[in-house]
């Protein structure tokens, strides 16, 4: 039985078998968690879907992992700050509405 995609075509995309396994596992976890797929799949399992994406060239190893890590941390911090700002605005709106209701009674 021939597996698709083949290991030879996949190793053309990544430097080593270890890198391939790590990239496949990370992408499979992302797909399982609900990440947006980059293409239509023929496979059903997320691990094989990840391999299809790697073979197509849609998923690659980031050239600077530390920079990628920093970008992820910055994005998470920005999302946290945005949530806090939204929560603050909601609390202010509630306080304002309560104040207006207090004057009407």
From TrEMBL:
User: What GO annotations for molecular function exist for this entry?
Assistant: DNA binding; DNA-directed RNA polymerase activity
Q: Name one Pfam family in it.
A: RNA_pol_Rpb6
Catalytic activity as recorded in UniProt: RNA(n) + a ribonucleoside 5'-triphosphate = RNA(n+1) + diphosphate
An example GO biological process term is: DNA-templated transcription
Keyword match Coiled coil: yes
Under Enzyme Commission nomenclature, its number is 2.7.7.6
Q: Does the keyword Coiled coil apply?
A: yes
What does the UniProt keyword field contain? Answer: Coiled coil, DNA-directed RNA polymerase, Nucleotidyltransferase, Transcription, Transferase
Coiled coil (residue ranges): 74-101
The record's listing under InterPro entries reads: DNA-dir_RNA_pol_omega, Pol_omega/Rpo6/RPB6, RPB6/omega-like_sf
For this UniProt entry, what's an example GO CC term?
DNA-directed RNA polymerase complex
State its role: Promotes RNA polymerase assembly. Latches the N- and C-terminal regions of the beta' subunit thereby facilitating its interaction with the beta and alpha subunits.
Q: How does it assemble?
A: The RNAP catalytic core consists of 2 alpha, 1 beta, 1 beta' and 1 omega subunit. When a sigma factor is associated with the core the holoenzyme is formed, which can initiate transcription.
The family line of this record is:
Belongs to the RNA polymerase subunit omega family.
Name of the molecule in the record: DNA-directed RNA polymerase subunit omega
């Amino acid at each position: 039985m021939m597996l698709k995609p083949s290991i030879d075509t996949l190793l053309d995309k990544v430097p080593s078998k270890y890198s391939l396994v790590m990239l496949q596992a990370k992408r499979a976890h992302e797909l399982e968690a609900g990440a947006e797929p980059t293409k239509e799949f023929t496979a059903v399992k997320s691990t094989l879907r990840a391999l299809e994406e790697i073979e197509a060239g849609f998923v690659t190893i980031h050239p600077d992992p530390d920079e990628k890590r920093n970008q992820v941390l910055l994005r998470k911090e920005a999302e946290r700050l945005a949530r806090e700002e939204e929560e603050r605005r909601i609390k202010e709106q509630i306080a304002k509405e309560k104040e207006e209701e207090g004057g009407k009674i």
